[in-house]
Amino acid sequence: MFRRFSYAISQTGSLIFGELKCELGWRMAPLPRARRTRGDYWEVRFWRGTARISAYPVACSRFVGSCAERVLAAGCYEQRPRCCVVFCQYLALIHNSGMSTFHVYADESCANDHRYMVLGGVTLNSALVPDILRRLEEVRERHNTFGEVKWTKVSKSKLDFYREYVDVFFDASAVDEMHFCALYVDTSTFNHHKYNGGKRDLGFNKLIYQLMLHKFGRRYGRTHDLHVYLDDRTTKHDPEQMRPMLNSDLAKWGIIGQPFKRLHFRDSKACDLIQLNDLLVGTVGFKRNLHDKIPGCAPHKIALGEHIVRRALQNEAPHRLNSAAARRFAVWPFRFGKG
């Protein structure tokens, strides 16, 4: 006999709740639940057990099939197979339509006349951008400071302003709303003549490529689309040219959704998030090049650098900043040929 049923589903944060009701007397099924885990899986808990389902961005039909197959194979809901399929269909809808977009704001520091060059970027969900910008604007208004924020412009009179400005990042990072990752490379190992046709700009683009591929694409591309905004600079190379190559390389790791959707330049003077990133990248370069050990170094820069390092260590504890497990404030010692 055909049995009609209704299925009520709701979502709260990363949890999804489902409830099956049958018009012909089935007792109400226990509440299925799905939780998105840090390991890029949906953990689906049904009546008789739990199944883990890959959260890779695949087509909806494939995702439903994967859900149903894994849940039923685990014996979690064999007495309610239709319930399982309906719930998995909803999970697929959340999975695909909920593929949120992450913004990455990136820049470099110590590009000229320094032993170590640093490139880095901050990333956050696009839905959080207005709130972060509002917080940064409030800091500006409290200190009556509206000019461009840069590491090279840090001054004694504005030290409190700069501390509050970077604290916007660290407060958001503490609850995983924003992350930062940088790489540094020994410029004495550069050989632009041999590898880049004598073009320093091409060598710079290769480092940006490595940062985007390994620290943003591989880390966030399975579950998020990525829009990248680079600090505008004079170059003949359009960063958009890197996008299909990045997506092609990510496919080698099974990330097949082509997550990089945009790579554009943006004027840092008009973008607070690039300016915020400049302070973090500048600090990494300042510390890695041992500028704080130079006699006569500005005390206010030393103080701001120590503040940033202290908060980064607090947020990242128990991991070191250069640990592979670091996520909130990660520093990558890049070596050519060793990725």
CATH homologous superfamily label of the largest domain? Ribonuclease H-like superfamily/Ribonuclease H
CATH topology of the largest domain: Nucleotidyltransferase, domain 5
Q: How many helical elements?
A: 9
How much of the residues is beta strand, in percent? Answer: 15-25%
Radius of gyration: 24 Å
> Which percent range fits the helix content?
25-40%
Shape: globular
Quaternary structure of the protein: single chain
Structural class, from secondary structure content?
Answer: alpha/beta
The major pleated sheet works out as: 6 strands, mixed
Helix and strand sequence: EEEEEHHEEHHEHHEHEHHE
**Going across the major beta sheet, what is the strand order?**
10-9-6-7-8-11
Distance between the termini: 61 Å
CATH class of the largest domain: Alpha Beta
Report the strand count.
11
Structure description:
Helix 1 packs across helix 2. With 339 residues, the protein is α/β, with parallel strands linked by helices. Strand 3 and strand 4 (41-45) form a beta hairpin. It has helices at 60-73, 81-97, 129-143, 159-174, 192-195, 200-220, 242-251, 272-288, 299-316, and strands spanning 5-12, 15-22, 33-36, 41-45, 50-54, 101-109, 116-125, 178-186, 225-231, 260-266, 329-333. Residues 1-32, 53-64, 75-82 and 93-98 have low confidence and may be disordered. The longest helix is centred in the middle third of the chain and has 21 residues, at 200-220.
